[in-house]
Amino acid sequence: MPDSPAVNDPGPSPSPFAVADERGGGGPATAGGGIAAAAPYSPGELVVHRSFTTSRLVFVRTAHVVGHDERGLRLWIPHGCPMAVELSEDGRGLRDMPFAEWIRQPTVMTTSVWRGPNIFMLVPPRGANSVWWFWDWQGRFVRWYINLEQPAVTWRDEDLVGVDTTDHDLDLWVTPERTWEWKDEHELAERLAFPNHYWVGDPDAVRAEGERLLRLVEAGAFPFDGTWTDFRPDPGWRMPDALPRGWDRPRA
Question: What is the rounded distance in angstroms from the CA atom of residue 221 to the CA atom of residue 163?
């Protein structure tokens, strides 16, 4: 999901105005060594969450730090936050055309705002994934989303703080009843046919990571045990009008 979406794709169906306060505290972060090293990220701190295909930046969203401790880094990515996405010169995204066409397109990073739903995101201290929480229009928790991706790296650059990863395309939807379904299997299969252009080198490892998370889902284990399903953001958090300076720095 975090890779370049279709231009008219609003994201998952739950409300973009899901209201979500966390019961946890802060903890360690890092500059270039995963998410659990030295320099702490503080609740409320502004972060750029970035997705790359190897070294090429393709997707950026702004977020607030909810907490950071032994459970991982929690982020709040609200509807309407500043973002940037890689688009073709005629304004289309990766999902607006076959991959065979996309890899021939001149592209440009285009700034915009996030039109999808609010996202509460857990970036774990270990593992090649992040887990997202979604709510409906009435603020009721409606599903988890397991985003399979490279283990994230956090960084600081003067006043700018970021999280960098590479999306692995294959993902999972999980309901509150812990039923589940794979997502974007067709995208993974299509793109694997172009190994000189695709950033996923080991699809079996990607699926194995998803299956590892599904064992937690089926056991009702953390983070699929109800933790943070009643989350509410700090009402004092405010997003800037634009991405912060340095959002397009090289990958950590």
Answer: 26
pLDDT tens figures, 62-71: 999 999 999 9
Spatial separation of the C-alpha atoms in residues 61 and 50, rounded to whole Å: 7
What's the pLDDT score for residue 23?
34
Paired strand residues for 47: 63
Phi, psi dihedral angles at 73 (to 5 degrees): -100, 125
**What pTM value is reported for the model?**
0.86
CA-based end-to-end distance of the chain: 21
CA angle 202, 63, 221 (to 5 degrees): 55
How would you label 198-214 residue by residue, b for 16+ Cβ within 10 Å and e otherwise? Answer: bbbeebeebbebbeebb
Neighbours of 32 (CB within 10 A): 12
Residue 189 token pair: 């299969």
The alpha carbon of 141 is separated from its chain's Cα centroid by a whole number of angstroms, namely: 18
- Report strand pairing: 160-165 vs 82-88: unpaired
Q: Please give the Cα distance from 113 to 109 (Å, whole number).
A: 13
